[in-house]
Amino acid sequence: MKQIIIGILLSLSALSYANEPLIQNPQSRKSFSLNGHWNYIIDMYETGYYNYRMEPHDNTENPGASAFFLNQKPKSKRDRVEYNFDSAPTLLVPGDWNSQKENLLYYEGTIWYKKSFDVENYDRAKRYFLHFGAVNYRADVYLNGKKLGTHKGGFTPFNFEMTHLLKDKNNFVIVKVDNKRAADEVPTLNTDWWNYGGITRDVTVLEVSSTFIEDYSLQLDKENNKLLNGFIRLNGDAKAFSKVNVSIPELKLTKEFTADANGFVKFQIPVKKIDYWSDLNPKLYEVIFSSISDQVIDAIGFRQIKTSGGDILLNGKKIFLKGISIHEENVMRGGRAYSMEDATILLGWAKELGCNYVRLAHYPHNENMVRLADKMGILVWEENPVYWTIQWENLETYSKAEQQLKEVISRDKNRASVIIWSMANETPQSEERLSFLTKLAKTTREMDNTRLISAALEDHGKKENSNIMIVEDKFAHVVDVLSFNQYYGWYGGDIDNIKNIRWEIDINKPVIISEFGAGALQGFHADNLTVWSEEHQELLYQETLPTLAKIPNLAGITPWILTDFRSPRRTLIPYQNGYNRKGLISETGNRKKAFYTLQKFYQQIQK
Ligand code: GCB
């Protein structure tokens, strides 16, 4: 009986991907990094996870010798153990595996990672958490041979408490990373980007006091620009009715609050004079959140973002979003971007183009991007990886989408730069999809009522025998900002006819063109009607920009895309060679002609 119960409990824990609450602002906590070289084992058949009857080893009380997470070593010369992390090669963490080893470029499957570590100044009175910036796609995490948990979703952070398993010396963390695509996952089987696998963002050990500040928020009220709304959530045995404190030294402001029985307190702080954050004035205040045994410091900007009819208002003033779409790739090095240096390159290029806004497509990018955007004064659209045709009727698929959205909102809710949450990209219309997306939008509004909601929708082509383009989508009535991708002159329609196109949009909301573009191989020159030439891409921009500018409620654009990026769908040799070529900058960092066309357009708007 006991065994049956344990079996049920174990299988329940293996099946549920319920995550522990995210710890806010891991960068500013007492911590040490586990970045660096990790030993890895490629495990195409998941031999280290399933026994030969295909039962997971971590579902049983006594996992077999081939359970890789045990990190076993032969005890004598007669002992046979058919894996060894210590003699295995290494991969760098953070980093995708595809761009680190030639034989892994096309690999989709399981790779096991191992890192050994000691804890300097290990303190029994403290609590320890293992934090991952992101792992694509599924991570099964073990410490010292015991499972900490499982996380799914390739672009959002997660953490597990490991206090109960941690020692001062000779710890080993093992992560089974699986990036196989599946129809019921988010994203689903097909995307137009590379499925980079691995531990793609930072791994950190956080040390916190036994009762600590798990989460907090502080934002300007949507209606009253002299009021800050916030909350603090404590975690730990002493959380009930505990005192907490918020202070903003520059504003000479300190407030004390008392948490409720659950260690939670919601509060409002009136402010007199405040320097508002904007693209032109990216002012960040040092904010100190403290409790009896913990303190977290953040840099937070305060701003309002709203819509009024067809306008987007930043701090009450109409703003035009001069944007560009970006994938999370460091094209020069190859592979997923993850570092502050990577963010500096990408956002630096966006600034050089004249942008005050970026669309981070099609999934949550690493936190450095939004932290830097906060400092540089670049407004940000963040997106959930609900891309193309996912399983709208599948409730589990919905919860995977919702979980990833909640994780990015939780991570970035204090970033002034983030102004739009995008629910999805180019999803096919149906009642099931409408209720799926509407539910996501409702959840988003419940979590964060200070930002705008959108989604990259699609146009519906031309009305018969006319040059009038239409957008009809029931979800357009749910969003705050009507955004859509349009490729007239590339995927359909004649490039010569772009100038005659007019848009008929009968919803009075701000409009963002979330994508348009054309592919061009940098360095390939021809007349401007020759596809793949820089001149052809330039022509498409020259024709499209003035046409879009005539859309009555146009509030912004994010052409597709800043740089060429890897995509398995782009097979044409010699032009594509595995890259989507719609970048304004090549994968070698060279600007194409259209870069300057867009730059000029943004300079003119500025004037
Ligand atoms: C789109 C997609 C984007 C693609 C792009 C293209 O509409 O949203 O992910 O990469 O078109 O190049 O076809």
From TrEMBL:
Keywords, ordered alphabetically: Glycosidase, Hydrolase, Signal
Pfam families: Glyco_hydro_2_C, Glyco_hydro_2_N
Domain Glycoside hydrolase family 2 catalytic span(s) in chain numbering: 308-606
GO molecular function list: beta-glucuronidase activity; carbohydrate binding
Ranges where the Glycosyl hydrolases family 2 sugar binding domain occurs: 67-207
Signal peptide: 1-18
Single Gene Ontology BP annotation: glucuronoside catabolic process
Keyword Hydrolase part of the UniProt annotation: yes
Classification via InterPro entries: Beta-gal/glucu_dom_sf (IPR036156), Galactose-bd-like_sf (IPR008979), GH (IPR017853), Glyco_hydro_2 (IPR006101), Glyco_hydro_2_AS (IPR023232), Glyco_hydro_2_cat (IPR006103), Glyco_hydro_2_N (IPR006104), Ig-like_fold (IPR013783)
Family affiliation: Belongs to the glycosyl hydrolase 2 family.
The protein's name in its UniProt record: Beta-glucuronidase
Lineage of source species: Bacteria, Pseudomonadati, Bacteroidota, Flavobacteriia, Flavobacteriales
